[in-house]
Design goal:
Layout (H helix, E strand, L loop, with lengths): L3 H14 L6 E3 H12 L7 H21 L7 E3 H12 L2 H19 L6 E3 H10 L4 H11 L6 E3 H13 L19
Antiparallel strand pairs: 1-2, 3-4
Helix pairs in contact: 1-4, 2-3, 3-4, 3-5, 6-7
Length: 184
């Protein structure tokens, strides 16, 4: 069952995915999100670009398969929240959608290949995705649980799980996309 906090977070993801702001998520919106993310990778980095693109298409397909109106090619906010809770956050689906995006993203951003994200790599990522550096800098501080100046893959995955699955309003992972008090 979706908690009020998850509804808030899923609503924020919906707003982010609704690239044209028309109140619906369509395949075009998902493709635009994929382009935003794949643009973070080096031009020759086809492996990570492909993982991110495939993850977004997997997510879209999960949304389409679970929609109530099978004739419609768009998903409204309430249906998105319902599908997120019932389908997307299920372990097997979460990995093929969100997990693929994150693995590709981490691979693309870890330019020095050390297996973690520096503050600069993290802030650059969110700056290019439209999240202000002041927000991403604070998020980095909270997500760097061991305060070593890097966000490891394990720390990033823990933040991801907390963002999508946790009902704890104080979980550091809630900062994955910015402060909870601005999420609408």
């Amino acid at each position: 069952m979706t908690t009020d906090l998850q509804v808030k977070k899923f609503s924020y993801v919906f707003k982010w995915f609704d690239q044209n702001g028309d109140g619906w998520i369509t395949q075009d919106d998902i493709e635009k999100m994929a382009k935003l993310f794949t643009a973070l990778a080096d031009e020759a980095d086809q492996k990570n670009k492909s993982a991110m693109s495939q993850g977004f298409m997997n997510w879209w397909n999960l949304l389409l398969e679970a929609r109530e109106d099978k004739a419609s090619e768009k998903i409204g906010k309430q249906e998105f929240i319902r599908i997120m809770d019932a389908v997307v956050i299920a372990p097997k689906n979460f990995e093929i959608a969100v997990g693929n995006i994150v693995e590709g993203l981490l691979g693309a951003l870890d330019r020095d290949g050390n297996g973690s994200l520096s503050k600069e790599e993290y802030v650059r990522m969110y700056d290019e995705l439209g999240i202000p550096p002041t927000t991403s800098t604070e998020a980095f501080r909270r997500l760097d649980r061991d305060s070593d100046g890097e966000i490891s893959r394990a720390e990033f995955h823990q933040a991801l799980f907390e963002y999508y699955l946790s009902a704890d309003p104080n979980a550091p992972g809630n900062w994955l996309l910015g402060p909870m008090d601005v999420l609408k």
